[in-house]
């Protein structure tokens, strides 16, 4: 996993910046009831999406929470007084205090199924009955756009997707969270080029292979043989699910 303290300063610039944040916020907002008064954005990162949620709903009190100091520090500049350091598996809030809880690009980062279950359980716990939980799902699958890059990477070892939609739905159901809506949005600026993908592969992304492994190098070398090394391939389309808490 990335060191998000070290990545915080450059994180937005390397992941689509404001256009991607705008697309994500629009999709999330479309699933959040208009009468929401308190919203928690779990794993808010740099706050680039969280700020848009707050700006779009001036009548909503928006709180951001993130585990890493570097990310939370950046988010706090965007949302002064509204960001806390917190582990999403043990949120520092009482039960049933938020009308909506969001987690954008979080569940796919968790290596263990028990951690995904814990996050969903905590989001359900702090959500009031009738409130809505909104989360991204199937992030890795969204990046498979059928390009020549994907053809090269197809045989690589993969880990099971911790944010697979059926899994998330089952974890949600265990905490009385029932599906209530879905949305999709384009990851602006997220189309992969061969050169960038080879560099990311050598950092340990997209695969179970460690950096420096001979098989990693073979995949990277094949990527470097593709045409149009700097040309981004089609952008991914991300999926969002919404769940309403019973009662």
In the CATH hierarchy, what is the class? Answer: Alpha Beta
Number of strands: 7
**Cα separation of the termini:** 37 Å
Main sheet, how many strands, which sense, barrel? 7 strands, mixed
The total tally of domains equals: 1
In the CATH hierarchy, what is the architecture at level 2? 3-Layer(aba) Sandwich
- Apparent shape: globular
User: Which superfamily, in CATH terms, is the homologous superfamily?
Assistant: Vaccinia Virus protein VP39
Radius of gyration (Å): 18 Å
How is the quaternary structure best described?
A: single chain
The number of helices is 10
Q: Write the CATH fold name.
A: Rossmann fold
- Structural class computed from helices and strand pairing: alpha/beta
Encode the helix/strand succession as letters: HHEHEHEEHEHHHEHHE
Q: Helicity, in percent? A: 25-40%
Q: What share of the residues does DSSP label as strand, in percent?
A: 15-25%
Q: What is the mean predicted local confidence, pLDDT?
A: 92
Point out poorly predicted stretches: none
Major beta sheet, strand line-up:
3-2-1-4-5-7-6
Protein name: Methyltransferase
GO molecular function: S-adenosylmethionine-dependent methyltransferase activity
Keywords: Methyltransferase, Transferase
Pfam families: Methyltransf_11 (PF08241)
